[in-house]
Hints:
Layout: H1 14-38, H2 44-65, H3 70-101, H4 112-137, H5 142-178, H6 187-215, H7 226-242, E1 255-256, E2 259-260
Antiparallel strand pairs: 1-2
Helix pairs in contact: 1-2, 1-7, 2-3, 3-4, 3-5, 3-6, 4-5, 5-6, 6-7
Amino acid sequence: MTQDHPLYAYSPNVGAAILYVVLFGLATLLHSYQVFRRRTLFFIPLIIGSIMETIGYGCRFQGHKKPGELSAYIVQDLFLILAPIFFAATLYMAFARIIRSVRAEHLALLRPSRITKTFVCADILCFLTQASGGGLLVRQDASAQSTGRAVFLVGLVLQILIFGVFIAMCWNFYARLSTSSGAPESEWKRHMAVLFAGSAGILVRNTVRVVEFAQGFYGYIEGHEVFLYVFDAAPMLAVVSIMIILHSIRQGNVVVDDTYVGGVSDTSRGGRPGVPLEGLEKPKIQSDSSDV
């Protein structure tokens, strides 16, 4: 906090703010196009989060021009902190779809529908906790701000714990499917790699945020803007960018444990795992509306 910038511990960098407004804006448009083209509605939370990031960095640009504007400061603070929760929701639903895409529900620790419901509900809990903490942070009362910071810290730690469980569940599924007989083609591994990378990015970001809030408003991280861009803006942009690959997740038409999803073993008739036999009618793929 300075005399010229009473709400910030520094003068917000206008160039960096504009850059990330443009980049997150482009990412939002690209994902929106893919959702319209492929009907991947489970990406709607990610689009909401990307819009929040765009608005958040736009408000940081406004904070450079009008450093005393409280509304812009509140919006950028809340939106940049809460946006990754929406990215996480899309990751959870993507994992459930990957499991269904290889017809390997029996190898997962939870059924895909339960994975979606469990982790999305946990995500909502994190959102409500952090949002309530953020509401206290913007009040002028010092005691309320202290309480809000503590509540927000609890929400971040809770999200880290949930992500730890999610990553462990993803790895368990990955290991079991990799070692199963007649494992499908490697496209699912590419999707799982995106899940791991996206989860790691959010996990690192949340860890730094926990340290930041533990240090307090006058802490070292809070007082240096570079930490925001190195450990928040850049990782979250990378997460949003690589998740474009997950739009290609398809449902079904692969072999797991040597059995074609249509009920006929293609390996027993000279076929190749993961590829339907010539002449066999492909089973109809049911829409996966439970994950939206």
